[in-house]
Amino acid sequence: MLLSLLICAVLAACGAGGSGGGSTANSGGGCASPPKLAKKDHYKVGFSQNASNNPWRLAETASIKEEASKRGDTLVYTDAANSGDKQVSDVQSMIAQKVDVILLAPITEKALIPAVLQAKAACIPVILIDRDVDHTLASPNKDYVTFIGSDFVQQGKRVADWMIQATGGKAKIIELEGTTGASPAILRKKGFDDEVKSQSGMQILASQDGDFNRDTGRKVMATLLQAHPDVTVVYAHNDEMAIGAIAALKAAGKHPGKDVIVASIDGEKDALNAIINGEEGTTVQSSPFFGPVSFQTIDQYAGGTKLADWIVVKDMQFTKDNAKENLPNSF
Fold it and tell me: pLDDT under 50 in the chain at which residues?
């Protein structure tokens, strides 16, 4: 109810119009949908990161900062420390600082809707990166410019397809989910679960939130192992939880890669090393290197290019056949 009230208030504000640091308002005083971006040699770019608690997030932040520096753009950077309320406040601060454009990695699909709409009301275009928002509450090419990110459903499906082949279609699975309400968690679960349903021998014993966090994943896995000692497969929505699960399996006297097959998503260095060491089977890449594509998208939008609702990032998949050769380029 509170979210609905906030959205209604922001939508009313949108009608009043406004002007951001580098956007172009309509002649009638309101904003275009989405707000336009005036073409400049250099931009004041807001980047709202949702957390910095794992290697993936750190790699993404480094990529954005590096590209901004390379281009001579001013970067206003904030870290929400895994708090939706703080991330909304961070975006509000960027609006007050009159940034030209905002790169937003929303913590969950609904929490950042008020911030997206507030930026729109201030005529500041928003580009979502790595996580999307609920399209019933905010729409691409209307309330925000576009979403740049991986195909999370396909990522989950690719893990499931590998798992089906590796197990011959017979497995007892524990699924470690990402942060509840986050688009990667929702869609990676859908892609995997829908695919394994096609195999009568694939049974999901338990599925629980591990918050995309290594230690949380370890603790959740340790608890679920007590209830389901017969598990043969672990599917983690990211590598951090997979590494935590491997630690929990070892502590329980099991041998990851032999007694229990582990698979995950992201493609970080620790996961590739786990594959090389035989403790993990596969990880599907979810590239964190958003700097080049994000700033290229800013340039294209300012230049008048009509952007797709979703700019799909292409990802690799790593197994024992290619993990070692790709280790130098991992994060």
Answer: 1-19, 24-28
What is the C-alpha to C-alpha distance for residues 173 and 207, in angstroms, rounded to an integer?
9
User: Quick check: 318 and 267 in contact, CB under 8 A?
Assistant: yes
pLDDT for 217-253, tens place per residue? 999 999 999 999 999 999 999 999 999 999 999 999 9
**Contact in structure between 17 and 124 (CB atoms under 8 Å):** no
Is residue 34 within 8 A of residue 46, CB to CB? The reply is no
Q: Is the Cα torsion angle 115, 120, 122, 128 positive or negative in sign?
A: positive
112: tokens are 């950042």
Beta-ladder partners of 284: 265, 317
Give kind and range of the element (H or E) at residue 161. Answer: helix 152-167
For residues 34 and 143, give the distance between their C-alpha atoms in angstroms, rounded to a whole number. 5
Contact 78, 90 (CB under 8 A): yes
The encoded tokens of residue 310 equal 């979703």
Determine the 3-state secondary structure of 222 from DSSP: helix
User: How far is it, in rounded angstroms, from Cα 88 to Cα 91?
Assistant: 5
Of 289, 237, 268, nearest to 61 (Cα)?
A: 289
What gap in Å lies between CA 74 and CA 100, rounded to an integer? 10
Contact indicator for 328, 267 with CB cutoff of 8 Å = no
Asked if residues 133 and 110 have their Cβ atoms less than 8 Å apart, the reply is: yes
The closest alpha carbon to 169, from 254, 257, 233, belongs to 233
What is the residue type of 74? Answer: T
- What is Dmax (Cα atoms) for the chain? 69
Beta strands in the chain (DSSP E): 23-25, 31-37, 44-49, 74-79, 101-104, 126-129, 146-150, 171-177, 202-209, 233-236, 261-266, 282-285, 310-313, 317-318
The C-alpha R_g of the chain, in whole angstroms, comes to 21
- Find tokens 């309400």 and name the residue: 181
**What's the pLDDT at 30?**
81
Half-sphere exposure of 168 (CA within 13 A, CB side): 0
